[in-house]
Amino acid sequence: MKRRTLPSRSPVRYALAPVAVAVVGACLASAAQAQDKGLTLRPSLRLQEQLPADVRSQTPTFVSGQRIEGHTGESTTVEGEAELRRHDTVIRADRLSFDDGTREAHAEGNVLVNRSGDRFMGPELRLNVDTFKGYFDQPQFELLNNNGRGDAARMDFQDQDHSTAHQARYSTCPRVPGADWMPAWLVRANRIEFDNVEQVGTAYGGALEFKGVPILGAPYFTFPLSDERKSGLLPPAINLDNLSGFELTLPYYLNLAPNYDLTLFPTLMTKRGIDIGAEFRYLQPDYTGRLRGSFMPSDRLRGEDRWSYTLQHTQTLTNALNRLGGGGSSGLSLNLNRVSDDNYWRDFPRASATLTQRLLPSDAVLSWGRGPWSASAGVYTWQTLQDIETPITPPYDRLPSLGLNYGLSDLNWGGLSGRGAVSLYGEYTRFESDPLLTGQPNGERAMAVATISHRFQTPGWFIEPRARLHSTQYNFDQPLANGQRSASRAVPTVSLDSGLVFERDASYFGRAFLQTLEPRAYFTWTPYRDQSFLPNYDSAATDFNLATIYSDNVFTGNDRISDTRGVTLGVSSRLLDPGTGAEIVRLGIAQRYLLADQDVTLPGGTPVQERFSDVLLAARVQWTPRWLFDTTFQYNPSSNESVRTTVSARYTPGPYRVLSAAWRLQRGASEQFDIGWQWPLSGIFGRSPEAVPGQALGPGQWYGVGRVNYSVPDRKIVDLVAGFEYDAGCWIGRVVLERLQRSAASANQRILFQLEFTGFTRLGSNPLQTLRDNVPRYQYLREEINPPSRFQRYD
């Protein structure tokens, strides 16, 4: 074979494989066959990240450079701006040799390798371009998935997905050009193995350094190369609590399968002992759930064992029902919560996931539905955690509660316009609790509620008459005060709801609007039925607001049906953006007039004899997306004073900037101020930078964050969460003070300190959940964005 030399002043591209012609030809042939069959090929708008294995093996290899020498089918040497390119792999160097027989490339001088966006740079490389097996001397590297980077004395490539760095350094901090790389934090190890299949890095003989100081060392540890789950030891959590003392948690995560996992989190508390906790999560096509529990043997502060567990399980039973010959849809829901003692909520205020820490629900419910029919069967129990200083009356357990409902809507009554609706609901419930605490006998309640209505509606008005009959039968374990062991009640209700909608074009302050005027009248009549002798198992007073004032019953539950005989008149007006339909301003006022006294009350209550109710006023203004003002005002015309007032405002000028404030007054009961914020400190005295996708406002930013709830009558802070966050780019620091009121005289206090090494791990106590739960519209400084593409780092 004749040797040939191709000198050139400009780079020359040289194809080493003619397979590209065959691939293109196959594509053209497939397109021709598709046209013959009447099919249309649609181009994809996305670049393909990975090729199928059979296609990848046939992709051609191209080389280019200032001078190319070689023998066809044997070896090729390229000098001067040498480049070898094959699909997702690019090799550049001052000098490049390629053996076509062994498929091995040898690069020297300013070598750069880019494979699927991962870049390696150094003085010398030997690599098999087919198997990606070889080594790199003194490389620097940059990983695409998590923006990790580092350097090593040598990098060994085992295959396309596995490599080992010797005497390596690794971090996600950027590399400053022209300076010795000394990032804010790094992992220094004798050996780091990178596994791109499991997306995990394994360091041997390594230490985590922060600002040049080793803070965590181990002979062996792993770290993530992406956001995918992996088994291993999670970062320790450190907490300082005034009740439990110094707390150290060492969680271990077990990725058992793609659809279930297990987390173990033993915790050492210096004032208490060791608390052993675990959480198991599972996900199946027909069911999902979470089981969490903890056990502390011999708590030193209480002198007893402490434990808790919670189970949430949701399951669809439709497939199983169909296999049994049934129909419709069905499901099972479990929500179980229990703790060892009454003081658990006080000693572990953050352990409960329920909204009310002293009332722990446990429910098991079966449901079924098919067409207009639906049914449910469940048991509902409560664990009430009592406090001697502030005892509470426990709610009733329902053992069981069975319900059946039939409902039809969009009915046509003899050709009337509008739509009619009819429903029939039946329920049987067994109520049980401690009669010494409730002061009432346990018993059973069976009831039936029938409702019929019809809504006449046009774009400018609506009228909806409604009739309801509520029938109830009771049986008691013990006789009532009147000696009866059973009772019955039937209460009819009729109502008429009506309203008008006027619209007009309007302009205020130079801005065009669509303005509405919406008067509404609601009439309801429920005759008086003496219910004072009946026990109260589940009724309570509804909140008085602009929604409930247009209702026929001022009580929730089914043990009290109020004899409301009155008319509610109200009017609201809205300003709408004519282009988007967004509500800019909403104003409303309403008042109820009673035609007769309201004599049905809750136990211990007094009849309502005032003909005119309190006046409700509400206003909501969002003139721009930045500002939101909302207020409700309950005014008593007899005493000429407000009964309840809520005024709130929120200012959101941009991402990671929010300031909210609220004042809540309930005369004779409480008065509180509530302030919440998340704000960059650079924005206090100047202009903050614009948001960076996935990275808040960019590196070098301090943020203040918190929420304060202050009680005016008590002259003290009730709850407090306040602190600072610092975003350095490749690491985030957080310091948060949390104070939660336990009783009138005591509170739980703790300091949360955390270092987050971006894309690597977090050390310290995690305040993120606390911030999300307490700070309105809090935004996490690192948001998930689309996975990176290899074409973002294309050489």
Characterise the protein shown here.
Together with LptE, is involved in the assembly of lipopolysaccharide (LPS) at the surface of the outer membrane. Pfam families: LptD. This protein is mostly beta strands and 795 residues long. Among the domains are: 1-37 and 52-107 and 125-136, no CATH class; 138-230, no CATH class; 658-795, no CATH class. The protein contains 7 helices and 47 strands. The protein has a 26-stranded antiparallel beta barrel. Mean pLDDT is 85; it is low at 1-37.
In short:
The chain has 795 residues and is mainly beta. Among the domains are: 1-37 and 52-107 and 125-136, no CATH class; 138-230, no CATH class; 658-795, no CATH class. A hairpin with a 2-residue loop joins strand 32 (502-508) and strand 33.
Helix content: under 10%
Q: If you average the pLDDT, what whole number results?
A: 85
What structural category do the secondary elements indicate?
mainly beta
Number of strands: 47
Largest sheet, if any? 26 strands, antiparallel, barrel
Radius of gyration: 36 Å
Low-confidence stretches: 1-37
Envelope shape:
elongated
> What share of the residues does DSSP label as strand, in percent?
over 45%
Indicate the topology.
Elements: E1 4-15, H1 19-36, H2 53-56, E2 62-70, E3 75-86, E4 89-99, E5 104-115, E6 118-128, E7 134-137, E8 140-142, E9 149-151, E10 154-157, E11 162-171, E12 185-195, E13 200-210, E14 213-224, E15 232-233, E16 237-241, E17 245-249, E18 252-257, E19 260-264, E20 267-269, E21 273-283, E22 287-299, E23 304-316, H3 318-323, E24 329-339, H4 344-347, E25 359-370, E26 373-384, E27 397-411, E28 419-432, H5 435-438, E29 443-458, E30 461-476, E31 486-500, E32 502-508, E33 511-525, E34 540-541, E35 555-556, E36 565-576, E37 583-594, E38 615-621, E39 627-636, E40 641-654, E41 657-666, E42 670-680, H6 682-685, E43 701-711, E44 716-727, E45 731-741, E46 747-757, E47 761-764, H7 768-774
Antiparallel strand pairs: 1-2, 2-3, 3-4, 4-5, 5-6, 6-7, 6-8, 7-10, 8-9, 9-11, 10-11, 11-12, 12-13, 13-14, 15-18, 16-17, 16-46, 17-20, 18-19, 19-21, 20-21, 21-22, 22-23, 23-24, 24-25, 25-26, 26-27, 27-28, 28-29, 29-30, 30-31, 31-33, 32-33, 33-36, 34-35, 36-37, 37-38, 38-39, 39-40, 40-41, ...
Family: Belongs to the LptD family.
Signal peptide: 1-34
Domain LptD C-terminal: 305-680
